[in-house]
Structures are given as C-alpha cells and as structure tokens.
Amino acid sequence: MDLLSGALPSPLVPLKDSWTQDAGISLYMKRDDLIHPLVSGNKWRKLKYALADVHRSGNATILSFGGAYSNHLYALAAAGRLTGISTIGIVRGEELAGKKRSDTLAFCEAQGMKLHFVSRESYRLRYNRDYLESLSRQFGKPYIIPEGGTSTMALEGVGELAQEVYDQLGRHPDYYTVPVGSGGTTAGLLSAGQQVLAFPVLKNGGFLKEVILDLASDHSAHLALSLFTDYHFGGYGKWNPELVRFILDFRDRFQIPLEQIYTGKMMYGLYDLMSKGFFRPGTTVVALHTGGLQGLDVALR
Ligand SMILES: *Cc1c(COP(=O)(O)O)cnc(C)c1O
C-alpha cells in the first residue's frame, strides 16, 4: 500500500503525427502528470519511498529545499498534508520573506508548510554537513530531503515507471526522453537499466552529466545517457514565443498539456531531434510527462 494514493499505472499513450511518421518512429508519452492532482509526476515517484521511510522512522516533520517556484516544495507540501506529516521549506532568497508570495509558495503555506527564507549564500550550503546539522538543531531534528526530492530512495521510485512501461508495451523502449532539473529522474531511469535522452532546462547544463552519473549507481550508465544542452530557451524559468507556439500546437494535436518550464522544452527538443534525423526508423521512444502543470503560464492556459 502506498502511503500516498496515486492512479497507477499511469497511461502510456501513442503519439502519431506527420513528424513521427516522417521519422518512422513509434513515439509514446508516459502520462505521469495524471498520477495525482497535487503531487504530480516525477515528484510523486520521487517522494514515495521517502514518505514511507519517514513514516517508519516515526519522525513527524520533513524539511526540504527549493526556490520560489519549486514544484518539489509544492508537491511536498501537499504530500505532507495528505499523510499527516509536518513540512518545512527552506526557500532560496531572504529578500522574499516580507514580499507577496509566489503562487507556489502561497499554495505551500496554505497546505501548512512552514517557510523559512535564507540568503543565497546560505542556500548554497544545502548539501553541507555542518549547515544541515545546524538546520536540524534549529528545527528539532526533522527528516531532511534534498532539493528536488532527489535521493537514493527517489531513484527506486522513479525506476518503477520503467517496469510499468515494460508491462504496457511488452518490452522496453529504445529511449526515454526526460527533462532535467536536479537529475534525479534521469538517474532513476538509468539505474533501472534504461537508455535516456536528457534535456536540461537550465543554461550550461553540461555539468549535470556528472551529477546524474554520480547519482546513478550503475557503472555502465554513462553509455546509456545522452545530454542535450541546447534546449534551455535562455535558462531556468525562461521561454519564448516559439516554445509557447510549440506547446499550443502540441496541445491541439494531442489534447495533452505541457508546461513551459520542463516538459515543453523536452518535447521541443525531441521534435527537433526527430526532424533532424536523429532516430533510426523503427525506433521506439517514450517521452516522460513529468507533470508540473500547476506551473502553467497564463499564456498557455
Ligand atoms: C522537478 C521536475 C523535473 C525535474 O526532475 P529532476 O529529477 O529534478 O531532474 C522535471 N519535470 C517536472 C515537471 C518537474 O516538476
């Protein structure tokens, strides 16, 4: 029994259009955005085992980290409320403390999350042992989950989606395509033995290769990972009219919403690779819809 309910397995839907036909590939979308209305997509998968571990440990509070638009804090706040666990969010940016909350942070507070704003300098220490010790003392020894929900336990939860796809498709696909933030989702699929085409959503995302391979325990993972760093559209949280157009066209063709921070950029990149002849005809690709639709920009609603 999962501590947090979820509609599993999430649907695997075929996407057929003139681009997939011209490229001769079988494209599917794994709709993890449909797992849960509040704890969406990869955040549900990443939190699953961490929540179970917290529950087992008897700890009543989780502390984690994120920015003002963090999908992870959003999901954690909702998950905490639904499972009776208190949550504390360490938020990057001291200057935000007295200001009007972003929609994300307003939601977090409404779910009961306590927000604690820290300077960018302090936030940079979020993996530092001494800093974590001091936070632990300050907040009464909470269970600490790293930024993005990315931990070893997260990999196991993400890996389960590969088994679901195997059951739905009758085999593993040749590739998964995944948007990358912290890299945990990509590492989870690699750890499950999958080939992954990964699209960082931030600028200069090349460093993520090492981060991902460090996370993935599998030593042959470097052979299974390709990183495409040119689809960030200016950086994290940035986008342009071309991306908006792509997202709206995609929604018209398939009645599937994408957002502009993660899934829109990944699908744009995938279609660009397709049109450039990256895939051999006969290739099967599963694009992972990681969710995040609460962050849809007004231009896309
Ligand atoms: C958090 C998030 C990601 C990034 O996942 P990582 O495991 O941090 O790489 C991708 N898509 C959506 C919608 C997200 O909310």
Describe the structure.
The protein has 301 residues and is of the alpha/beta class. The chain has two domains: 2-38 and 153-300, 3-Layer(aba) Sandwich (Rossmann fold); 41-149, Rossmann fold, CATH 3.40.50.1100. The chain is 41% helix and 17% strand. Strand 7, helix 8 and strand 8 (196-200) form a beta-alpha-beta unit. It binds pyridoxal-5'-phosphate. Pyridoxal-5'-phosphate binds at residues 41-43, 71-72, 148, 150, 179-186, 262-263, 290-292. Residues 41-43, 71-72, 148, 150, 179-186, 262-263, 290-292 line the site of pyridoxal-5'-phosphate (PLP).
- What is the number of helices? 12
Going by helix content, strand content and strand pairing, the class is alpha/beta
SSE succession: EHEHEHEHEHHEHEHEHHEHHE
CATH topology of the largest domain: Rossmann fold
The number of distinct β-strands equals 10
Looking across the biggest beta sheet, what order are the strands in? 1-2-10-7-8-9
Count of separate structural domains: 2
The average pLDDT value, as a whole number, equals: 95
Which CATH class of the largest domain is shown? Alpha Beta
Considering DSSP H and I runs of 4 or more, what fraction of the residues is helical?
40-55%
Biggest β-sheet description: 6 strands, mixed
Shape: globular
How is this fold's topology laid out?
Elements: E1 12-15, H1 18-23, E2 26-31, H2 41-57, E3 61-66, H3 71-83, E4 86-92, H4 103-110, E5 114-118, H5 120-123, H6 129-138, E6 143-144, H7 152-169, E7 175-180, H8 184-191, E8 196-200, H9 208-215, H10 221-224, E9 225-227, H11 241-254, H12 263-275, E10 284-289
Parallel strand pairs: 2-10, 3-4, 3-6, 4-5, 7-8, 7-10, 8-9
Antiparallel strand pairs: 1-2
Bound molecules: pyridoxal-5'-phosphate.
Residues 41-43, 71-72, 148, 150, 179-186, 262-263, 290-292 line the site of pyridoxal-5'-phosphate.
